[in-house]
Amino acid sequence: MKKLIVANWKCNPKSLQEAKKLFDTIKKATKSIKETEVVICPPFLYLPVLKTKGSKIKLGAQNCFWEEQGAFDGEISPPMLKSVGCSYVIVGHSERRRLFKETDTMINKKIKALIRANLISILCVGETEEEKNKGKFTQVISDQIKKALKGVSRKDIQKVIIAYEPVWAIGTGRACRPIEAQVVHLFIRKIIARLYSRKIAERLPILYGGSVNQKNALDYLKESGMKGLLIGGASLRAKEFIKIIYDTERI
Ligand code: PEP
């Protein structure tokens, strides 16, 4: 399976013009990649405008609603995302959990709705600094995974990717040490093996996210056994993001 490099643009850039420029730069530079799947998750509004045709880039969204359609002001559903060319959707990002009070139950509904729409969920899990200091990370991560995947079948788990994103490392410049990421990586596999099977656990892609940059990116792929990276800040800097993709191609 290819390595997966996911760009989470969050609420950036400020204009469609800037978004197109950034996207086109990445698109042009990645035409010849072979070993890496690049997924760009821009704000919803830019999705139908960013043209992936003739490129290796896939589109992803940063969130979704769990109903297909109806009286739900301001929400965007999985079939809508599918209809504008999305293949992946990030679910349960810590900023959504913290700022928009997203619960594990809501995340579970979103994952099931994404499965129905045949979209791949990128489920974000991770502990806060306080939870880490109290030695609670295993409990937090195991709870988040079990609740998010409640009722997801052995067949449907194939449409789920897990991203380990320690909350204290997101946007802080304090990246998690690769050895720490490796410990969590193995722990996540253990939970999946218990919930499903060892075979499923071995196949499930696990990503790392949190202050990834061009200097540390490869450490996670080489030393932590991660299948890919979820990148926020550095994905908005075209040159740096492209370098990470090309470094990934070479391992
Ligand atoms: C993120 O937003 O998911 C993220 C990992 O951000 P950053 O790379 O900026 O820490």
What's this, in brief?
Helices cover 39% and strands 17% of the residues. It has 251 residues and is of the alpha/beta class. It is globular.
CATH superfamily: Aldolase class I
Strand content: 15-25%
* Subunit organisation of the chains: single chain
Name of the CATH architecture: Alpha-Beta Barrel
Number of folding domains?
1
How many extended strands? 8
- What strand line-up does the widest sheet have? 1-2-3-4-5-6-7-8
Order of helices and strands, N to C? EHEEHEHHEHHEHHEHEH
Residues in helices, as a percent range? 25-40%
- General shape: globular
Low-confidence stretches: none
Q: How much is the radius of gyration in Å?
A: 17 Å
Describe this structure in words.
This protein is an alpha/beta fold and 251 residues long. It has a single domain (3-249), classed as Aldolase class I (TIM Barrel, Alpha-Beta Barrel). 39% of the residues lie in helices and 17% in strands. It is built from 10 helices and 8 strands. It has an 8-stranded parallel beta barrel with strand order 1-2-3-4-5-6-7-8, surrounded by 5 helices. α1 (16-29) packs parallel to α10 (238-249) and α6 packs across α7. It is globular, with a radius of gyration of 17 Å. The relative contact order is 0.15.
Offer a few descriptive terms.
251 residues; alpha/beta; TIM Barrel; eight-stranded parallel beta barrel; 8 strands; 39% helix; 17% strand; binds phosphoenolpyruvate
